[in-house]
Amino acid sequence: MKSGSRALGVAESSPGAARAPTDDADDAHFSTDPSPESVLCGAVVRADRVVDGLAFETCAVGGDDATDAIASLYDSLDREDVRYLLVSGIAPAWFNLVDIDRLAAALDRPVLSVSFEESEGLEPALTEQFSGAALDRRLATYRAAPPRRPVEVNGETVFVRAAGCDGDEAAQVVRGFTPTGGRPEPIRVARMAARAARRFAGD
User: Fold this and answer.
1) Which of 20, 79, 80, 194 could pair with 28 in a Cys bridge, judged by C-beta atoms 3.0 to 4.6 Å apart?
2) pTM of the entire structure?
3) Does residue 25 have a pLDDT over 90?
4) Where is this region: Disordered (predicted)?
5) Contact 93/60 with Cβ under 8 angstroms?
Protein backbone atom coordinates (compact mmCIF):
# COMPACT_ATOMS: atom_id res chain seq x y z
CA MET A 1 0.00 0.00 0.00
CA LYS A 2 1.54 3.32 -1.06
CA SER A 3 2.03 5.78 1.79
CA GLY A 4 -0.14 8.40 0.08
CA SER A 5 -3.11 6.08 -0.51
CA ARG A 6 -6.21 7.39 1.24
CA ALA A 7 -9.11 5.65 2.91
CA LEU A 8 -12.22 7.08 4.51
CA GLY A 9 -12.92 5.51 7.88
CA VAL A 10 -16.45 5.80 9.28
CA ALA A 11 -17.36 5.17 12.91
CA GLU A 12 -20.17 6.27 15.17
CA SER A 13 -20.81 7.13 18.77
CA SER A 14 -24.18 6.41 20.33
CA PRO A 15 -25.38 7.36 23.79
CA GLY A 16 -26.08 4.70 26.38
CA ALA A 17 -24.25 2.51 28.84
CA ALA A 18 -24.33 -1.06 27.56
CA ARG A 19 -22.85 -2.64 24.46
CA ALA A 20 -25.22 -4.42 22.11
CA PRO A 21 -24.39 -8.15 21.92
CA THR A 22 -23.81 -8.38 18.17
CA ASP A 23 -21.00 -9.52 15.93
CA ASP A 24 -20.75 -6.25 14.05
CA ALA A 25 -21.93 -3.37 16.22
CA ASP A 26 -18.57 -2.17 17.47
CA ASP A 27 -19.85 0.94 19.26
CA ALA A 28 -23.62 0.35 19.48
CA HIS A 29 -25.40 0.63 22.81
CA PHE A 30 -28.61 -0.27 24.53
CA SER A 31 -30.16 2.55 26.51
CA THR A 32 -33.48 2.98 28.29
CA ASP A 33 -33.55 6.62 27.20
CA PRO A 34 -31.50 6.93 24.00
CA SER A 35 -30.89 10.09 22.07
CA PRO A 36 -32.72 9.97 18.74
CA GLU A 37 -29.45 10.47 16.89
CA SER A 38 -26.00 8.94 16.78
CA VAL A 39 -22.95 10.87 15.60
CA LEU A 40 -21.12 9.54 12.55
CA CYS A 41 -17.61 10.69 11.73
CA GLY A 42 -15.73 10.17 8.50
CA ALA A 43 -11.93 10.49 8.71
CA VAL A 44 -9.76 10.60 5.60
CA VAL A 45 -6.44 9.02 6.56
CA ARG A 46 -3.41 8.20 4.44
CA ALA A 47 -1.66 4.87 4.76
CA ASP A 48 1.25 6.68 6.43
CA ARG A 49 -1.17 7.77 9.23
CA VAL A 50 -1.59 11.39 8.11
CA VAL A 51 -5.14 12.60 8.79
CA ASP A 52 -6.34 14.44 5.73
CA GLY A 53 -9.95 15.45 6.43
CA LEU A 54 -12.96 15.04 8.72
CA ALA A 55 -16.71 15.20 8.19
CA PHE A 56 -19.72 14.51 10.38
CA GLU A 57 -23.26 13.24 9.93
CA THR A 58 -25.98 11.78 12.10
CA CYS A 59 -28.23 8.76 11.85
CA ALA A 60 -31.20 7.65 13.89
CA VAL A 61 -30.63 5.35 16.85
CA GLY A 62 -32.59 2.21 16.00
CA GLY A 63 -33.43 3.59 12.56
CA ASP A 64 -32.67 2.48 9.02
CA ASP A 65 -30.86 5.50 7.58
CA ALA A 66 -27.20 4.63 8.27
CA THR A 67 -26.42 3.67 4.66
CA ASP A 68 -27.77 6.95 3.30
CA ALA A 69 -26.05 8.93 6.07
CA ILE A 70 -22.67 7.41 5.22
CA ALA A 71 -23.20 8.13 1.52
CA SER A 72 -24.07 11.74 2.40
CA LEU A 73 -20.96 12.01 4.58
CA TYR A 74 -18.78 10.76 1.73
CA ASP A 75 -20.39 13.19 -0.73
CA SER A 76 -19.85 16.12 1.64
CA LEU A 77 -16.11 15.54 1.61
CA ASP A 78 -15.92 15.69 -2.21
CA ARG A 79 -12.73 13.62 -2.19
CA GLU A 80 -12.11 11.73 -5.40
CA ASP A 81 -8.70 10.69 -4.05
CA VAL A 82 -10.28 8.39 -1.44
CA ARG A 83 -9.76 4.85 -2.70
CA TYR A 84 -11.48 2.81 0.00
CA LEU A 85 -14.25 3.18 2.56
CA LEU A 86 -13.77 1.37 5.88
CA VAL A 87 -16.83 1.19 8.13
CA SER A 88 -16.69 0.17 11.77
CA GLY A 89 -19.11 -2.75 11.93
CA ILE A 90 -22.31 -3.25 10.02
CA ALA A 91 -24.92 -2.34 12.66
CA PRO A 92 -24.15 1.08 14.16
CA ALA A 93 -26.60 3.14 16.21
CA TRP A 94 -28.47 0.22 17.74
CA PHE A 95 -28.96 -2.01 14.68
CA ASN A 96 -29.17 0.72 12.02
CA LEU A 97 -27.82 -1.73 9.46
CA VAL A 98 -25.40 -0.64 6.74
CA ASP A 99 -25.92 -2.05 3.24
CA ILE A 100 -22.29 -2.20 2.14
CA ASP A 101 -23.10 -3.57 -1.33
CA ARG A 102 -25.35 -0.58 -2.00
CA LEU A 103 -22.69 1.78 -0.66
CA ALA A 104 -19.99 0.29 -2.87
CA ALA A 105 -22.21 0.65 -5.93
CA ALA A 106 -23.29 4.20 -5.08
CA LEU A 107 -19.80 5.47 -4.27
CA ASP A 108 -17.96 3.42 -6.91
CA ARG A 109 -15.40 2.47 -4.26
CA PRO A 110 -14.66 -0.76 -2.41
CA VAL A 111 -16.38 -0.77 0.99
CA LEU A 112 -15.07 -2.83 3.89
CA SER A 113 -17.01 -3.42 7.09
CA VAL A 114 -14.49 -4.20 9.85
CA SER A 115 -15.42 -5.61 13.24
CA PHE A 116 -13.25 -6.68 16.11
CA GLU A 117 -14.89 -9.50 18.06
CA GLU A 118 -15.80 -13.11 17.39
CA SER A 119 -19.53 -13.79 17.47
CA GLU A 120 -22.15 -16.28 16.42
CA GLY A 121 -23.98 -13.63 14.41
CA LEU A 122 -26.50 -10.85 14.57
CA GLU A 123 -29.78 -12.63 13.87
CA PRO A 124 -30.62 -13.68 17.46
CA ALA A 125 -30.22 -10.10 18.71
CA LEU A 126 -32.28 -8.72 15.81
CA THR A 127 -35.06 -11.23 16.47
CA GLU A 128 -35.06 -10.34 20.17
CA GLN A 129 -35.23 -6.58 19.62
CA PHE A 130 -37.48 -6.22 16.53
CA SER A 131 -40.56 -7.74 14.96
CA GLY A 132 -42.74 -7.38 11.89
CA ALA A 133 -41.59 -5.21 9.01
CA ALA A 134 -38.76 -3.65 11.05
CA LEU A 135 -37.29 -7.10 11.65
CA ASP A 136 -37.83 -8.23 8.08
CA ARG A 137 -35.96 -5.21 6.67
CA ARG A 138 -33.00 -5.74 8.96
CA LEU A 139 -32.81 -9.46 8.36
CA ALA A 140 -32.91 -8.94 4.59
CA THR A 141 -30.03 -6.45 4.73
CA TYR A 142 -28.03 -8.59 7.12
CA ARG A 143 -28.50 -11.84 5.18
CA ALA A 144 -27.53 -10.15 1.90
CA ALA A 145 -24.27 -8.81 3.34
CA PRO A 146 -21.00 -10.34 2.10
CA PRO A 147 -19.53 -13.05 4.33
CA ARG A 148 -17.49 -12.08 7.35
CA ARG A 149 -13.90 -13.28 7.02
CA PRO A 150 -11.06 -13.21 9.58
CA VAL A 151 -7.96 -11.20 8.70
CA GLU A 152 -4.75 -11.46 10.69
CA VAL A 153 -3.04 -8.11 11.23
CA ASN A 154 -0.13 -7.34 13.55
CA GLY A 155 -0.75 -10.49 15.56
CA GLU A 156 -4.46 -9.73 16.03
CA THR A 157 -7.61 -10.87 14.22
CA VAL A 158 -10.25 -8.61 12.74
CA PHE A 159 -13.33 -9.64 10.80
CA VAL A 160 -14.01 -8.12 7.39
CA ARG A 161 -16.93 -7.98 5.00
CA ALA A 162 -15.95 -6.63 1.59
CA ALA A 163 -17.99 -5.23 -1.28
CA GLY A 164 -16.37 -4.02 -4.48
CA CYS A 165 -13.15 -6.02 -4.03
CA ASP A 166 -12.11 -9.59 -3.36
CA GLY A 167 -10.93 -11.05 -0.09
CA ASP A 168 -7.24 -10.76 -0.90
CA GLU A 169 -7.51 -7.05 -1.71
CA ALA A 170 -9.62 -6.47 1.41
CA ALA A 171 -6.96 -8.10 3.59
CA GLN A 172 -4.24 -6.04 1.91
CA VAL A 173 -6.19 -2.82 2.53
CA VAL A 174 -6.83 -3.61 6.20
CA ARG A 175 -3.17 -4.44 6.78
CA GLY A 176 -1.98 -1.44 4.78
CA PHE A 177 -4.02 0.98 6.90
CA THR A 178 -3.16 -0.70 10.24
CA PRO A 179 0.46 0.22 10.94
CA THR A 180 0.23 -0.86 14.59
CA GLY A 181 -2.26 -2.74 16.72
CA GLY A 182 -5.42 -4.30 15.36
CA ARG A 183 -7.62 -1.34 14.45
CA PRO A 184 -7.28 0.35 11.03
CA GLU A 185 -6.15 3.93 11.49
CA PRO A 186 -9.07 5.52 9.55
CA ILE A 187 -11.57 3.76 11.82
CA ARG A 188 -9.59 4.53 14.98
CA VAL A 189 -9.44 8.25 14.17
CA ALA A 190 -13.10 8.36 13.12
CA ARG A 191 -14.21 6.68 16.33
CA MET A 192 -12.26 9.10 18.54
CA ALA A 193 -13.64 12.09 16.64
CA ALA A 194 -17.23 10.79 16.78
CA ARG A 195 -16.99 10.31 20.55
CA ALA A 196 -15.51 13.78 21.02
CA ALA A 197 -18.24 15.35 18.89
CA ARG A 198 -20.98 13.61 20.87
CA ARG A 199 -19.45 14.71 24.17
CA PHE A 200 -19.15 18.26 22.88
CA ALA A 201 -22.83 18.18 21.93
CA GLY A 202 -23.62 17.16 25.50
CA ASP A 203 -25.04 13.67 24.84
Assistant:
1) 20
2) 0.91
3) no
4) 1-36
5) yes
